[in-house]
Amino acid sequence: MPRLSTTPAPQRSGTLVSDLVRDDRVRRALDWLGKNMAWITDEQTRITEIPAPSFHEAQRAAYLRRALAACGLRMRTDDIGNVIGERAGATDDQAVLVVAHLDTVFPAVTDVHVRREGGMLYAPGISDNGAGLAALLGVARALNEVKLKTHRTIVFAADVGEEGEGNLRGVRQLVDAYGKRLAAVIAIDGASTDYVVTQALASRRIEITVTGPGGHSWTDFGTPNPINALARGIARFLSVPLPATPRTTFNIGEIEGGGSVNSIPARAAIKVDIRSEQDKEIARIETALREAILAGMQQEMDASKASGIAIGDSAGLEMQSRALGVRPGGDLPASSPLLQAVKDADQFLGNRSRTERSSTDANVSLSMKIPAIAMGGGGRAGGVHTVGEWYDPEGRELGLQRILLTLLSTAGVEK
Hints:
Layout: H1 17-20, H2 24-35, H3 37-48, H4 58-69, E1 74-77, E2 83-87, E3 91-101, E4 115-117, E5 120-122, H5 130-146, E6 152-159, H6 169-178, E7 182-188, E8 195-200, E9 202-211, E10 215-216, H7 226-237, E11 248-257, E12 263-264, E13 267-276, H8 279-306, E14 318-327, E15 330-331, H9 337-349, E16 354-358, H10 362-367, E17 372-375, E18 380-382, E19 390-392, H11 396-411
Parallel strand pairs: 3-6, 3-7, 7-17, 8-16
Antiparallel strand pairs: 1-2, 2-6, 4-5, 5-19, 8-15, 9-13, 9-14, 10-12, 11-13, 18-19
């Protein structure tokens, strides 16, 4: 076995990777993962072909519950649909949560049949989070195959509501339920082994709705149009400057309204995602968005008055806004034993990776100062969040072994 660096690692109650790999059970678990790639890829295919939009994950959850139960875990499903399997440790007062989200960004009508071309897999959700769920299942089975006992209890969970308006509701409930027992959280999301997420990207998701009296496109022409008002406001908002540092982004992801081509709509709405490395920038962009839409509404009202059409005093526009989700930020200290475990695993496996900031199931724990990371399940992927999403399982054993070593280093192995 390759020898790790002799640089002292931070103190921790787990087990050093350099010690782990001397254990025959750990070597057999690593070997099992290497030899069972086809089974894990087949499971990934079966999981991906079960539709699971946010808030509608029950069918996929039922499959994961059966599959994890077959790995010897004590299973339950909580009141919001999280599937939870516990692998008891020598002590029950501390637990390591390994979590992968069930939901996808795609509506239920999306064709999620997996198409295979050579060694490549194509389907919406095949990587995000088919790869993560398959990795969760593969690591759980590898541990069961070798009957390895850990010091801390390991909780394997397939959680609901990570994507979009799910607002991390699944992992929020898991973190709340385990409370002070949580020693660490490892989220498995997607495929990449090029990085480990140690910084939680804060975000805010907003819906802004503009309402008006509506009317007929001909006889009521001149009545202020909510869609026009939003269009005017969006045009203004797009010119709002964004700083290079801290990195800040926004996305107008949905726009809807109206009922027919020859009707002035009575309602129109947009949904906007705002992200930044600093909370103050999120607040600034949100304020700019509201001001831009209000200005667009005023422009539309002024245009209606200028048309000379008598529309009445009550035929104005109104704006309502509501938060669809708030994701907290946070950071894992560079000296964290959890991060050191990842680095040790990477060094042993010959993998090079960087730390990264992203929005994942690790956000909640990081915001509460609970050690947490997000890791990919291995392989390569692209086209995430599009119907052209693809996954290449070649080399996925690296990601699986990386997760296993990081988990065992954090949970600690009993002799």
